[in-house]
Amino acid sequence: MGPLTIVFARCLQAIPTVFGIVVVTFLLTRALPGDPAAYFAGASATAESIAEIRAKLGLDQSLPVQFWTYLKDLSSGDLGQSISTGQPVAAELLRRLPASLELTLTALLLSVAIAIPLGVLAAVRQDSWIDQLCRLVVTAGVSLPTFFTGLLLIYVLYFLLGLAPAPLGRLDLLHVTPPQVTGFLVLDALIAREWATAWSAARQLALPSITLALFTLAPLARMTRAAMLQALASEYLRTARAAGLSRGRVLMVYAFRNALLPIVTTLGMVFSFSLGANVLVEKVFAWPGIGSYALEALVVSDYAAVQGFVLSMAVLFVLVNLAIDIVYTLIDPRMRIEG
Amino acid sequence: MNRRELLKSAGALAIGSSMLPFFKSAAFAAPSDTVVVLIGNTINSLDIHRPGTNRPSYQVAVNVYDRLVTFGTRKLADGSLAYDYDKVVPELAESWVIASDRKSITFKIKPNAAFWDGSPVTAEDVKWSFERALALGGFPKVQMGAGGFVDPAQFVAVDARTFRIDLKKPSKLSLPNLGVPVAVVINSKVAKSKATANDPWAAEYLHRTPAGSGAFKVERWDPGQQLVYVRNDKWAGGPLPAVQRVIIREVPAQATRRALIERGDAHLSFQIPNKDAQELAGNRKVAVTGSPIDNCLYVACLNYNFEPFKDQRVRQAVAWAIPYEQIFRQAAYGRGVPMWGGTTAKPASAVWPQPFPYGTDLAKARALLDQTAHKAGFEVPLSFDLGEADWGEPAALLIQESLGKIGIKVTLDKVPGANWRTVALVEKKLPFLLENFGGWLNTPCYYFYWAYIKGNLFNASNYDDATVKKLIDETLHMEKSDPAYEPRIRQLIQKAFDDVPRIPLWQPTLESAMAPKLHGYQFWFHRQVDARSYKLA
Known about the structure:
The complex is a heterodimer.
Chain A: H1 3-31, H2 36-41, H3 47-57, H4 63-75, H5 89-124, H6 129-143, H7 146-160, H8 185-191, H9 195-232, H10 235-242, H11 247-277, H12 279-284, H13 290-299, H14 303-331, H15 333-338
Helix pairs in contact in A: 1-14, 5-6, 5-9, 5-11, 6-9, 7-9, 8-9, 9-11, 10-11, 11-14, 13-14
Chain B: H1 3-19, E1 34-39, H2 58-64, E2 69-75, E3 81-90, E4 93-98, E5 104-109, H3 123-135, H4 138-146, E6 155-159, E7 162-166, H5 174-177, H6 188-194, H7 203-208, E8 216-222, E9 226-231, E10 245-250, H8 254-263, E11 268-269, H9 274-280, E12 287-292, E13 298-302, H10 312-321, H11 324-330, E14 337-338, H12 362-370, E15 378-385, H13 389-404, E16 408-415, H14 417-426, E17 432-435, H15 444-452, H16 466-475, H17 485-499, E18 502-507, E19 509-514, E20 518-519, E21 522-523, E22 535-536
Parallel strand pairs in B: 1-10, 1-11, 3-21, 15-16, 15-17
Antiparallel strand pairs in B: 2-3, 4-5, 5-7, 6-7, 8-9, 9-10, 11-19, 12-19, 13-17, 13-18, 14-18, 20-22
């Protein structure tokens, strides 16, 4: 099977999943205990004004009718209007998703850059000081909640030392958002050749992404270490060593390449997971991402926004899995044959 | 042979890269005529009339639009500033005349009052805006109704500069109600040009693009992040703001807001928790202002639908068993106005709110309970809004503990914010709950109207009393100067003392932390940022 066929087959497989998610989120949002009409009618609303709003939201219709309307809108790419923000959900997600992606990707890059060498070293020199360090980092990363690390970093690096910039979101007050190309502020500013803005955006990005990186580092380092250990103990490695290959080649080509598969799997999981889970980091750093949007929408029973969020996350999940499958085939030739 | 070096350098690189962003610190510096304000909630619309517009968005109506009238300023005992409900002053109107039968008010609009696009503010604009507030329904309509404005025919544009409002019956609430955020005047020419058949009131357009005459224009709005106001140099509504620009930043995490204000990176952290206010009060780098919220009480409501609470003695027993002092210390952090321990069982004045004649006296509570059919005690859930958990939770826990001592077994019931309004205020089915209603219009009768008449929204107790209803009906629209007014209010307060469907815990304050160089901070009944008076010195 060629790679294109694999991609196509995987996309086909995703369709029932996505449809299932559409149904489930629709039902789940309707099962939320709150009454959005009463909520949005405001402080001193009367029964009559609540009814007016209910009709405006289309919530006076029966569930199947609401679902049908939702599907119809969805098929034309309309995710509906968020009542709490008053903006179209699609536009809002498009604006906020890059913020979350920028944060998550930077954090992942950072944690990969640390976790993989750390894991490899820890495995190669088992029980050395670096292995102990790895253990410490992993335990800390798993056990410290992100809001705690975030606040701690703010307290030390911003509040006490004044090294980090004010945690005021993606840009400080002096700079204006560069024209949007990628949605990643640092890149956009570089493209627009606004060096000061790029620097400011990068500085704003530093603390939250380190916070998130500390959290995502743990599973990656642990997996790297475990996979490397397994590879190092394997028969084929003994053979390679016996064949007199250089230690570097044995380690990087034979051991590491084989260890890469579970690492990539973990990476994919960590990515999809942290995209939604970085809501606490977003809250602490006033980061206008998708997680805080979803949380606020959930609190006020903003159906359209919650549905839009879950749906876009589902699609993203499918895409990430697809990307990982493709990466698999690159790493492991067996996949191409068997797949 | 070179593996070690390779890995060593890889490790060094990884560690180095994590340090990269902290090369140096560039202290944040906003221009000297810019005020930076932090808020915790998000502004979701620039149009106060739109259904779904949340409370934090009301500040846009205040800063960006004008009303016909506004309120004066008074200095409180602690030196802080607050609006003065008893002093209605001009904003867009230069003068007004109340007809001799008090059934209409005629306003003369200031000759220099102009919208941002330069067109004059006309009576037509006022009429259109008020009609819009009624037509879009929801909260604006209810609030307009509080002033007796229910029918578009009441709004008359006499000529370009003369606007008349006809009243179905004379009411002291009518004029002040024109100074609330909802009663904004919109540039109707601009709005009408953006209206469509589906959207005759240009709700889509005004939601994102204000069209007003106010002291500030919106320079930039990044929903979920910030709102930037820039001064309208031609403002006719009042003294020109001292600052050129105001940046409202949304910072959801309370701890982050506190770090920012303590570091001096913002001028004002609007509405901080009482705990922070208490802790920051001794801090010399930050000034804390706590303004009592007029006509607002944090109360424990006893629902008449719940069998034991039908008995007045049971309600009084509960009122005697509440640990007021402790709640004030632990839930309010000592910031607020005590509303217990009144010295006389009869109200000495018509001041509202005033301390109720209850305190913590378990023996008295026990004795009262023993006279009733419920002397064996009973079980009752105490509900509070999770959105108000910062004070609701400690208060509920303390009440639970104390009532347990007189045999009332209290269980705690936390209700999510989206649910609260429905179960507590609309269905009114919670037996025992913590509630925090405050009226924008600062008269006792207005509070009683909303909270003590059966069926009205904030009467979560289902309190129903013919005398009280009659007294409220009589006083609601009566002038405060009427000699009949004060005795009736005293009677109302007396009923509130005796029947205690609502047990006041304390009168809350609105706490804000600000840089010492920010002046002109003023408390408003709408509890939102009014940047028009801010100065930097």
